[in-house]
Amino acid sequence: MPKCIVDYCHNYAGMRKNYANVILHGFPTTLDRITSWLISLARGGQVFENLEEMATKIQEGKKHDSYRICSEHFTKQCYMVSGEKKVLNKDAVPTVFTPPMVEAHWSPRHEPPSRQTKDFLKRRSAEDAPQNPRKGRPFCKSCKAAEHGKDLDDVVLNLTLEIIYLLTGE
Predict the structure, then answer these.
(1) pLDDT at position 86 over 90
(2) Which of 25, 30, 32 is nearest to 94 (CA)?
(3) Run of H or E including 85
């Protein structure tokens, strides 16, 4: 069963009743047009080991029409309306490549910290430097933070916060 060639696209033949407006288009017949479609796909993030080989493979596969790209990757301007049918223009090239949606497996906490968290923070702030054996102890011999007199816990905390910022944008 043919499916859309775009890596993250979920459309395939047989989904007509669920996605009535999605059309699976066959690739053009000429090698130049096939290559232009593949170049557009590559600009959208699709990775091909060898673009020319893939274009030739698609052209040879035209007999079976096994390579397709769905209508979600074309703009409205790429179509002519002929009666009740939408037909691709001869010069149409796929240009719509939205990145795959990443499902979050966690949700950020918006409620205030729990009592347990507050107690932990109080205990931690009450500790004196001499009582905490981890403070200032380098995790490797060449730790530059310890050489410059920075508290290792602060360095780790700052790195952790930077990572969280990079991952969440907050």
Answers:
(1) no
(2) 25
(3) strand 85-88
Per residue in 92-137, pLDDT tens?
999 998 765 545 555 555 556 667 666 776 776 666 445 545 555 5
Task: Kindly indicate the confidence band of residue 91, based on its pLDDT and cuts at 50, 70 and 90.
Answer: very high
Q: Where are the domains of the chain?
A: 1-98, 115-168
Largest CA distance in the chain: 83
| Digit-coded pLDDT (tens) for 27-80 | 998 999 999 999 999 988 888 889 999 999 988 887 677 789 999 999 999 999
Q: CB-based burial of residue 84 (10 Å sphere; 0-12 exposed, 13-18 middle, 19+ buried)?
A: exposed
Question: Count of residues for the chain?
Answer: 170
Alpha-carbon dihedral 13, 72, 9, 101, rounded to 10 degrees: -140
The model's pTM is 0.55
Instruction: Establish how many alpha carbons lie within 13 A of residue 65's alpha carbon, considering only the half-sphere containing its beta carbon.
Output: 6
Kindly report the number of other CB atoms within 10 A of residue 166's CB atom: 8
Angle (deg, nearest 10), helices 31-43 and 51-60: 130
**Rounded to an integer, what is the distance from CA 113 to the centroid of its chain?**
32
Predicted local distance difference test score (pLDDT) of residue 110 = 54
User: Which amino acid, residue 125?
Assistant: S
